[in-house]
Amino acid sequence: xxxxxxxxxxxxDEVSRGLAGVRRxxxxxxxxxxxxxxxxxxxxQLTAGNRTFVLDPLSVEVAPVLGPLLEDPDREIxxxxxxxxxxxxxxxxxxQIQGLFDTQAAATILGINGIGLQSLLGRTLDxxxxxxxxxxxxxxxxxxxxxxxxxxxxxxHLMELADRLTSELQDVGRMAWAVEEFRALEEIRYEEPEGSxxxxxVKASRDLSDREVHRLREALNWRDEVAQEMxxxxxxxxxxxxxxxVARRNPGSMEDLVDIQGLNGRLARGEGDxxxxxxxxxxxxxxxxxxxxxxxxxxxxxxxxxxxxxxMRRLKAARNQKAKEMGIDRGSLLPNALxxxxxxxxxxxxxxxxxxxxxxxxxxxxLGPDLLKALEAVPTGG
Length: 382
Fold this sequence. Notes:
CATH architecture of the largest domain: 2-Layer Sandwich
Order of helices and strands: EHEEEHEHEHHHHHHHHHHHHHHH
Shape: flat
Helix content: 40-55%
Largest sheet: 6 strands, mixed
């Protein structure tokens, strides 16, 4: 296998020339979120035939080359577990994939146990992937050759895997289902996360007083600023449990701060003054100024009426039985959230089921009659 690192502008033409007439490409991406503050796109791997290009978007502008290649609907792009990578490509390169074939989605439709790439390659092709660089820092530069070779392995076998899965899908008559899933994945776009109070993501915050919650909030914001400045994942600066302990103990001096178990002493001495100042400000607030946990959002529905609960019970039973018969994970056949919508506004026809946002045509076709039958004996209330 010919593996070529593309990290200079004068080598980009190799990609354009090498893939110009190719109608099928395997694609994967590497990001740095496990190590760095930002989960920015760090590598893009492309395989066609016996050639693999490993493109470095941190060193060279790759979008002008990748855009025409990946947005051509007549070219199949084979990926595995594409959801996160599709968002990265949209956000960082403004590229929206066309012609997608996702091997993980295909395996899910087939009801295969173990849909990770390593499991699928072992099951289907008897290929074993090493795990050495699973959590590597892909923003590291220069990249050592073993990391480049490792990244290439994520695409080298993808097209053969897709061929095997395609054959299995055709054998059981589920190819059209998979294609519908692929087209839905193509619609994925990056969305900026909504701003929210960081304390709600810390489970232990529920056991803190309002003032302690406010200290935790200040500690979390301090950690975020330090992590951004250091370009380090926030949990690598200090984990949540350490900051909860800071909120509880309320250290009043550098010695007290350094004494908190789990907090890096060098980090505390270098950046801790800002944290101590934040904590002192919280101490100065009056009780009416202290902001505890935010009020939990309430959708106004409360507990559903008995007939709706009964509809949900019957819908789940029908879904679970069908999933068992088909050998598909019940949540993949139809998730509970969509069943809840059907229970709240019961359909009377297959078209009613198809009209619910998020329900695929294949799901309505395969499961719809069972769902309608399950609802027949339940009163609608009113």
